[in-house]
Design goal:
It is a single chain. The chain is mainly beta. It is built from no helices and 56 strands. It has 5 domains: 138 residues, Immunoglobulins (Immunoglobulin-like), CATH 2.60.40; 116 residues, Sandwich (Immunoglobulin-like); 87 residues, Immunoglobulin-like (Sandwich), CATH 2.60.40.10; 92 residues, Immunoglobulins (Immunoglobulin-like); 221 residues, Neuraminidase (6 Propeller), CATH 2.120.10. The strands form 13 sheets. Strands 21, 22, 23, 24, 25, 26 and 27 form a 7-stranded mixed β-sheet that branches. The chain has a 6-stranded mixed β-sheet with strand order 12-20-19-14-17-16, with no helix packed on it. The two termini are 45 Å apart.
């Protein structure tokens, strides 16, 4: 800030700044965010108490919060402390702790679009506290990139899927992202799904998806499914529009052409009818949307009326008397449908067959199915047929030998009537049903990846792949002297951070900076922390290792240990993991002097179930499910080098990459859902 932009007035010991020159941080898109630091207004200068004023340059509803810091440098390195977090509507802060020499204050503004700005007072000289501000600057921002994909064509009455991606181009996290989607008017909403803990909302064809935050370089995906109205005309173009806030781009639209080719479907009821030898008459109800015709396939069946028509109609027919002692079977063909007629023989005929199958086993979508129907009586061989009463599951058919076979394509319960005739043309029918279910999709196992904790700056650096590169997430949490600990504290399938400090655990349920969501006292100063799912309930709890003894707690509350047993020696380093894939984490130790892991498959005292020579003296141990097979295996960390094994055996590293630096402490976990 130049001195020409300031005007000073000393009134009652106060200094007021009435103007300032501010600029956007270089290298960012102005449409993505407005980086406008607050203007420092002044203070009351008193070592009995200090008050800061500032002026918001953007509406307070665009500001998430302020952090107030105090920083001093006197005969040594700078030290700083966070004094308070204030809401976005704040314009004043009162510090009753007094003032220091060679000090200044920092007003840091966090905007809801992800940008961060700050204003500092200049350093005071000895005896002249807190003179005038000297620095207002932007610390950065972020913008959302928006894309949408849709199929080029869709049939009327079918579902259409819109795939929307939101990208954070960085370099900072973006908070409170809102996607607003307007579905085409000729559709009806079916479902919404989102990655990254996105929350679907809205009503009717106006849908919303909100994300609490999207980190730099992360792409989240939203899948919207809608059903196209069956009456949409062929060739109609429907357009879906989505917008994002904040975003550096305007609305994104995707257009699709609707196809609606008229079909011609005929249904008849009933599907057939038996008659005595004396004959008789009957009727068939027909529904057809584009015209139908009926033809008798048998000379002794005469169509009396309804031989053709359109829409709903009725066919009447007459069955002549059967002069033969043998039963007979005939049919009327109605535009691809068959109406079956069976007639008993005159006196002296044989007994018709009987279908003995009473139930059919279920099938699964996409899995080949084969099941035979059975019959007794009559005069074999039998000839099986489908009566067109009801419907077989799509993909299956009834063969003449009585086998129902094929590969089901749709789940559901299907009722139908099967028929059988013998060599004397005697027939029988039976109503059956079959249930087809979807094949369960096995869950996708996430692999463990590495991270490090840097005691020098109290930050955790997490990597989403077991490859060399910069950390995907860097989280300020803890302070020098803390021990890191990670686990799935809330059972959501994601491992999150925590620290152990002198007999107390401070745990977070997300891999973000903030206050501890779970705090508990357990262990004592000098213990080494451990974490694991000790009972297989899907949630990690804590424990400590104390000179050759493990003390484990089965809930995230203070109290005595639920397990206490000896394993390992004083000086060993503890590790935990599911060494046998049974869903329960158990303990182990790494003996650095001999570079040997000793692993136990139960949380009790006893000899090691596995002993693995791996690494070198001085290495730090690691453990995780590196290949997603459900079994935890070992690894080592050596001054910035990560070397991992996919089996609990000695040998060369199957994964080796660089992460962190000498002095860091290794971590492992499933950092993403």
């Amino acid at each position: 800030m130049s001195s020409s932009s300031l005007r000073y007035s000393r009134v009652l010991g106060a200094l007021f700044i009435l103007g300032s020159a501010l600029a956007l941080a270089p290298g960012r898109t102005s449409s993505a965010f407005v980086c406008t630091p607050p203007i420092f207004q002044g203070w009351v200068n008193s070592c009995q108490g200090l008050q800061l004023w500032w002026l918001n340059k953007i509406p307070s509803y665009q500001i998430d919060h302020y952090d107030i810091y105090y920083e001093t440098r006197y005969d040594g390195p700078a030290t700083s402390a966070k004094l308070a977090t204030l809401p976005g509507s704040a314009t004043k802060y009162s510090d009753l702790s007094g003032c220091g020499l060679y000090a200044h204050y920092i007003i840091r503004q966090f905007n809801k679009d992800g940008s961060v700005c700050e204003t500092r007072t200049s350093q005071s000289s000895k005896g002249v506290p807190h003179s005038f501000p000297c620095d207002s600057r932007c610390l950065g921002g972020a913008s959302i990139g928006l894309n949408q994909a849709a199929p080029p064509t869709v049939a009327a009455g079918a579902d259409i899927t819109y795939t929307i991606t939101a990208n954070n181009f960085g370099p900072n996290p973006i908070q409170n992202i809102l996607l607003t989607d307007t579905l085409p008017g000729a559709t009806t909403f079916v479902s919404c799904a989102a990655t990254g803990a996105g929350v679907c909302g809205g009503s009717g064809n106006s849908r919303t998806v909100t994300f609490a935050a999207i980190n730099p370089g992360v792409t989240e995906t939203v899948t919207l499914v809608a059903k196209v109205d069956p009456g949409v005309a062929n060739g109609t173009v429907i357009t879906n529009t989505v917008t994002a806030a904040p975003s550096s781009s305007g609305p994104v639209a995707a257009s699709t052409t609707v196809t609606n080719t008229p079909s011609c479907t005929t249904t008849i009821s009933p599907g057939g009818q038996p008659f005595p030898a004396s004959g008789g008459g009957g009727s068939v109800n027909v529904v057809n949307d584009c015209g139908w015709s009926a033809v008798s396939a048998t000379p002794w069946i005469t169509i009396n009326s309804g031989a053709s028509g359109s829409g709903s109609g009725t066919i009447t027919y007459t069955v002549a008397a059967n002069p033969d002692t043998s039963p007979r079977q005939g049919a009327i063909n109605v535009s691809g449908r068959t109406f079956n007629v069976t007639q008993s023989g005159a006196s002296g005929g044989s007994t018709p067959p009987s279908i003995t199958t009473s139930a059919l086993p279920g099938g699964k979508v996409g899995v080949a199915y084969s099941q035979s129907l059975n019959a007794t009586g009559g005069a074999p061989p039998y000839n099986w047929f489908f009566t067109f009463i009801g419907a077989l599951p799509p993909g299956l058919s009834l063969n003449a030998d009585g086998t129902i076979s094929g590969t089901p394509t749709a789940a559901g319960t299907y009722a139908f009537t099967a028929g059988v005739s013998d060599s004397s043309s005697l027939t029988a029918q039976k109503a059956l049903s079959m249930t087809i279910t979807n094949v369960p999709v096995p869950p996708i196992r996430q692999v463990s990846t590495a991270g490090v904790y840097r005691p020098l700056d109290g930050r955790l650096y997490l990597r989403f792949t077991n490859t060399s590169g910069y950390a995907d997430v860097a989280i300020p949490y803890g302070m020098p002297g803390d021990y890191p600990v990670t686990g799935d504290w809330d059972g959501d399938g994601v491992d999150t951070i925590g620290i152990y400090r002198g007999g107390a655990f401070f745990l977070r349920n997300s891999n973000t900076a903030g206050y501890a969501e779970v705090m508990l006292s357990f262990g004592q100063n000098g213990d080494l922390p451990v974490a694991g799912d000790w009972d297989g309930d899907g949630k990690a709890t804590v424990g400590v290792f104390r000179g050759g003894q493990f003390l484990l707690r089965n809930s995230l509350t203070a109290g005595p240990p639920d397990w206490a047993f000896s394993f390992g020696l004083a000086g060993d380093l503890p590790v935990t993991g599911d060494w046998d894939g049974d869903g329960v984490d158990t303990v182990g130790v790494y003996r650095s002097a001999t570079a040997t892991f000793f692993l136990r498959n139960a949380n009790n005292a006893g000899a090691a179930d596995l002993a693995v020579n791996y690494g070198a003296p001085g290495d730090l141990p690691m453990a995780g499910d590196w290949d997603g097979d459900g079994v935890a295996t070992v690894g080592i960390y050596r001054q910035g080098l990560v070397a991992l094994r996919n089996s609990n055996t000695g040998g060369y590293a199957e994964l080796a990459f660089l992460l962190g630096t000498a002095g860091d402490v290794p971590l492992a976990g499933r950092w993403q859902p």
